[in-house]
């Protein structure tokens, strides 16, 4: 049965597998973030894209089991809470980037003797009741308003990742979008970003690229409307995120795209495009270093804001 023609039926894992042209087992590994089998980044993107198109809802119990391996780790030095605004309604692209980051950060902190605990923003009230259990709090991609409110609630060190705080009392680790857009806007007129990027990224971009030329992608329809309206046949376009770039290249020549990826494997998906990399491994490394310094009460030895620059992988 065609799931697209039967909107009343909830999509199954088999539907996702058929749409992505992979096995059901592969879909299970990808959507439950299992590390039991090595799966290429390109295949993961295909699965996430298919799941998003079909509005697939993952099994929460399986997801809990996938994360449980982190909570079972014996922590020697302390517990780090990571507050993130993500839920079953979040896009699979957002989930893909976040959980890859979470897995890397959990592994990095585990090597230093810390346990990383995920705190969903919708459950933050419960976390506040248990706040004495945490030695440090990290805020991940929250709005300025939510982040500033939370800094007043926890009486332990608080730092942010890709979250603006505008407060010298708190440290931030951010990708350097300012210099990225300043540089790329000199040769690209248009920009495509996902709707889940924080407001800071859009505000930075709009300093260098006219807001009318920025697409904040919300759906397949928004892409079609944008490219139908804009005549960009000979113009360069910046696309942030390899999953979004896979969609955009259906509308423009790949040579027109300047793709900003989040994984090294993702950079190999666009042989005819200019490609840059915001390396998740580097933001994880800096975050782990910051956690160590803050918990050793040596925060003054670390820059107030740590910027991770984009690396040029391939230039046309």
TrEMBL record:
Domain HTH lacI-type per the UniProt entry, residue ranges: 11-67
Keywords: DNA-binding, Transcription, Transcription regulation
GO MF terms, alphabetically ordered: DNA-binding transcription factor activity; transcription cis-regulatory region binding
Family matches, as InterPro entries: HTH_LacI, Lambda_DNA-bd_dom_sf
SMART domains per record: HTH_LACI
Protein name per Swiss-Prot or TrEMBL: HTH lacI-type domain-containing protein
């Amino acid at each position: 049965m065609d799931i697209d023609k039967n909107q009343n039926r909830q999509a199954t894992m088999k539907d996702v597998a058929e749409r992505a042209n992979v096995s059901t087992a592969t879909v299970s590994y990808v959507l439950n973030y299992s590390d039991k089998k090595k799966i290429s980044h390109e295949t993961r993107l295909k699965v996430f894209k298919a799941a998003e198109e079909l509005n697939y809802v993952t099994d929460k119990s399986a997801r809990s089991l996938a994360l449980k391996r982190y909570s079972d780790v014996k922590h020697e030095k302390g517990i780090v809470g990571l507050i993130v605004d993500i839920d079953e309604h979040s896009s699979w692209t957002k989930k893909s980037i976040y959980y890859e980051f979470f897995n890397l950060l959990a592994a990095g902190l585990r090597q230093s003797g810390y346990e990383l605990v995920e705190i969903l923003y919708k459950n933050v009230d419960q976390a506040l009741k248990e706040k004495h259990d945490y030695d440090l709090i990290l805020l991940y991609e929250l709005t300025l308003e939510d982040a500033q409110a939370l800094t007043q609630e926890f009486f332990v060190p608080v730092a942010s990742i890709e979250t603006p705080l505008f407060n010298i009392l708190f440290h931030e680790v951010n990708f350097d979008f300012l210099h990225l857009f300043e540089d790329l806007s000199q040769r690209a007129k248009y920009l495509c970003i996902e709707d889940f990027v924080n407001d800071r990224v859009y505000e930075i971009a709009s300093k260098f690229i006219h807001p009318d030329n920025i697409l904040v992608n919300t759906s397949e329809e928004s892409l079609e409307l944008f490219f139908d309206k804009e005549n960009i046949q000979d113009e360069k376009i910046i696309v942030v995120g390899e999953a979004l770039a896979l969609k955009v290249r259906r509308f423009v020549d790949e040579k027109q795209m300047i793709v900003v990826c989040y994984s090294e494997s993702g950079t190999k998906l666009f042989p005819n495009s200019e490609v840059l990399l915001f390396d998740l491994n580097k933001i994880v490394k800096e975050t782990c270093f910051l956690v160590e310094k803050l918990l050793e009460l040596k925060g003054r030895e670390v820059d107030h804001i740590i910027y991770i620059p984009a690396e040029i992988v391939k230039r046309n």
